[in-house]
Amino acid sequence: MKINTILFICLWLGYLPLFSVDLQAVKPVLTLVADTVLLSIGPEARTLEFTDKSSGVNYADVRTRPSFVCVKRDGKIIPADKAAIVAGKLHFDFGDTDIHVTLKITGVSHSIVVEVLSVTGAGVEECIFVHLPLTLKGSSDASWLVGV
């Protein structure tokens, strides 16, 4: 029995690369570059990259690959699952729902500007855009200024 288990694990590990997603192979639908950061969004509406240009570190949490845009309807969060450039704007779809979000995102010298152009669909209570969990870790002695 132990040999069967070991054989299974070895085979599983050998085939694991067939099932993993290579983020470098995913072609972004949008890549914006500002003086200090680079932002890439993939065709599945996921943030592929949020890189600090000075250090070269990608702070986007690529393990969980969160959707760049989510909406709330009937108290439930629905992540976007498709992103495409339509008429020069970034358009997001949300599965089998009637919900669509259109953003205009531009990179300017020291920032990235996100403008919500439209949110359509019945019963949308909230639109969460630039949903960008980071891998950046703080320290206990760090002083943070947060704005809402």
Overview features:
four-stranded antiparallel β-sheet, 41% strand, 1 helix, mainly beta, 148 residues, 11 strands
Give the biggest sheet.
Answer: 4 strands, antiparallel
Instruction: Tell me the fraction of residues in β-strands, as a range.
Output: 35-45%
Domain count: 1
- Shape estimate: globular
Measure the end-to-end span: 58 Å
How are the strands ordered across the major sheet? Answer: 1-2-3-4
| Mean pLDDT over all positions | 78
Low-pLDDT windows of residues: 4-23, 140-148
Number of helices: 1
Helix share bin: 10-25%
Instruction: Output the radius of gyration.
Output: 19 Å
Brief overview, please?
The protein has 148 residues and is mainly beta.
Describe, in plain words, how this protein is organized in 3D.
This protein has 148 residues and is mostly beta strands. The chain has one domain (22-129). Helix content is 12%, strand content 41%. The chain is built from one helix and eleven strands. The protein has one helix at residues 2-19; strands spanning 30-33, 37-41, 47-52, 57-58, 69-73, 76-79, 82-86, 89-93, 100-108, 111-120, 124-129. The strands form three sheets. It has a four-stranded antiparallel beta sheet, with no helix packed on it. The termini are far apart.
What order do the helices and strands come in, and which of them pair?
Blueprint: H1 2-19, E1 30-33, E2 37-41, E3 47-52, E4 57-58, E5 69-73, E6 76-79, E7 82-86, E8 89-93, E9 100-108, E10 111-120, E11 124-129
